């Protein structure tokens, strides 16, 4: 195991939501040397309740990442995912409450995450991008400013409004130093997949994160979403995603993007069309004008007519791409 760890690429995956945890489920089988940097902007659902009642950072996305990297018995994984069905705890997951209890026992949220990582014997590390209590704010093209990740998506859903930019309150919160160190020491930095404005970009708004990505000698890849997202990116092309990331994190933040090339089944397309979502339009020439090379691989899973990334296929495609492009190739 030690030899494999020493030879494996140091991978930093930056994001949030279900996209990051899906990515991690595959990556842990190709490299044990993983650091997940997780957005702390979530304010909805069970995480939002715990933020309000306990004054703690949102645990949900961190908990999902810990579960994805965990090496535990199936019963433990099921326990962490269990959601209470009634009473004051209705809808709350046991994993969130477990992390909340550890937070109460710890000096900081990242220490609580480290303790839970030890309990679950995870592969790699999970780091909150910041310990500060942050709120995401979005300016829309209709002149309205909306505060809160879930409120932003709700305001935009089903409407033609377009997000102009997002930013944090407090502005430029301090990054966890371990996140900066991990990025600077990485062989491969991954952004996404996940909700563009509410899962991926919030990490770039934390002091020092985008600067560390630019300074890192790592291969840098954006894992493109499979579909547009109602409430965030309807009508967006692949190039629009890249522009938004560059607008918030600086031009040249990455120079490769990994894009699925497995056609979406017609039956799945119809279901997503009713929800205002569609496959991304990819213009390779436009991406090249932005300084980004498009790399294609069949990384989707369409079982049960859901459009999702396949964790194993995605991880293998990422490692194959890393071997081709990494300036520090050691794998």
The major sheet is characterized as: 7 strands, parallel
Number of strands: 12
Tell me, briefly, the overall form: globular
Which bin fits the share of residues in helices?
40-55%
Listing every helix as H and every strand as E from the N terminus to the C terminus, the arrangement reads: HEHEHHHHHEEEHEHEHHEHEHHEEEH
Q: How much of the polypeptide forms β-strand, as a percent range? A: 15-25%
Characterization of this structure:
It is a single chain. This protein is an alpha/beta fold. It has two domains: 30-128, no CATH class; 132-331, CofD-like domains (Rossmann fold). Helix content is 43%, strand content 16%. The protein contains 15 helices and twelve strands. It has helices at residues 2-7, 17-27, 45-54, 60-69, 74-81, 94-105, 109-120, 149-156, 177-184, 196-204, 209-215, 238-249, 266-274, 284-289, 311-325; strands at 11-15, 34-38, 125-128, 135-140, 145-147, 163-169, 188-191, 219-223, 256-260, 293-297, 300-301, 308-309. The strands form three sheets. A seven-stranded parallel beta sheet has the order 3-2-1-7-8-9-10, sandwiched between helices. The protein has a three-stranded antiparallel beta sheet with strand order 5-4-6. Helix 4 (60-69) packs parallel to helix 7. It is globular and about 55 Å long.
